[in-house]
Design goal:
This protein has 350 residues and is of the alpha+beta class. The chain contains 9 helices and 21 strands. The strands form 4 sheets. Strands 7-8-9-3-10-11 form a 6-stranded mixed β-sheet, sandwiched between helices. β10 and β11 form a beta hairpin.
Length: 350
């Protein structure tokens, strides 16, 4: 593995205790709610925050080890960092910004500028080399920050929400440029994002960090099929429940029950996709195994679909077509019958 790290540290009110490993040429996306410790973890890997316990190894080289006292300073680590707000030097030209890391590592000015210009050309920025950051667009600033990070030929590239400051129309193009720019990059890559599309498009593997702890790791399909926290379930767009299964029923903490077709017993997670949740004005006929009354808490249009959040003993999100929502007259505060087939409930051990 290119990166192997175990980091335990306290930063502000956050107690971070997380391990992460990334292979060569692997792009890992780090997910988590605000305040989970994502940026703190990146800064600890880069050496900008000292760790209390643990170790960081990059390509088998010890960058930090609390047991031996080894701590390589940030400028000596082969790590490129693209910060969320880019942190470009406003008084330096674009080419000088990109060359800064090279100069800090002892390279002569002429050679550093030559390499910086090559990176600016690769990112379609050669026409901006004499400008100051204040004259650039958000997309250009992002590409300059990426060029500066890649120019030092890092073995680990850290990207802290590199698209956060950009408008929606610019993101798709810059995602494409990012993929192209790092395609030939032979090191490990760790990207922080809150955007599900960015995560699913870019990630080889996902790591979820919540309250300073890694709660789940795996591919996008792994997280879709078996989310292990409410945050992950919301991120991948499914309903998640936890309870004790016995004889085809799951008793939830609220006292509500779900009838399931799965024979698993013990403490389990259960997921239901919103499109498997049906809404009715009157109690449905037939033999659905899960039927109850609930009130509409919120209605959120999403393209040609509508996501309807239902409250009650078994809060759940349903997803129906816009036409069905209009026909039913779905609106906040109204009551409907909710129905789920037992076969639509996916169950797995907690």
């Amino acid at each position: 593995m290119t990166l192997e790290a175990t980091v335990t540290t306290r930063f502000g009110r956050l107690d971070l205790d997380a391990s992460v490993s990334i292979g060569a040429e692997e792009l890992v996306v780090l997910l988590g709610p605000n305040g989970a410790g994502k940026t703190t973890l990146l800064r600890a890997l880069a050496g900008l925050i000292a760790i209390d316990r643990g170790a960081v190894y990059l390509d088998g080289v010890t960058l930090e080890d609390s047991t031996t006292g080894v701590r390589v300073p940030p400028e000596k680590r082969r790590i490129g960092f693209v910060f969320q707000d880019y942190l470009l030097f406003p008084h330096l030209s674009v080419v000088d910004n990109v060359a800064f890391g090279l100069r800090a590592r002892g390279m002569g000015r002429k050679q550093a500028h030559k390499l910086a210009i090559q990176w600016l050309q690769r990112l379609a920025l050669d026409g901006c080399k004499t400008l100051k950051p204040g004259a650039l667009s958000g997309g250009q600033l992002q590409r300059v920050a990426l060029a500066r990070a890649l120019a030092i030929e890092p073995r680990l590239l850290l990207l802290d929400e590199p698209f956060a400051a950009l408008d929606v129309s610019a993101r798709a193009e810059l995602r494409r440029r990012l993929r192209e720019s790092v395609a030939s990059f032979g090191g490990a890559r760790l990207l922080v994002t809150h955007d599900p599309l960015e995560a699913l498009v870019l990630a080889d593997r996902l790591v979820v960090l919540e309250e300073g702890r890694v709660t789940q790791t795996g591919t996008a399909d792994d997280l879709r099929r078996r989310p292990r926290s409410p945050y992950v379930a919301t991120f991948v767009g499914v309903n998640l429940f936890k309870g004790r299964a016995k004889q085809g029923r799951i008793e939830l903490d609220t006292g509500a029950e779900l009838v399931v077709a799965n024979g698993t017993e013990g403490v389990v997670f259960a997921t239901v996709h919103p499109h498997a949740v049906a809404l009715f004005r009157n109690r449905p006929d037939g033999t659905p195994r899960n039927v109850w009354r609930a009130a509409v808490e919120s209605v959120d249009p999403a393209g040609d679909r509508v996501r309807v959040r239902m409250s009650g003993r078994l809060p759940i999100v349903a997803e129906v077509t816009s036409a069905a929502a209009a026909e039913l007259g779905v609106a906040e505060g109204l009551w409907f019958w909710v129905s789920i087939k037992a076969t639509e409930v996916s169950v797995y051990p907690a």
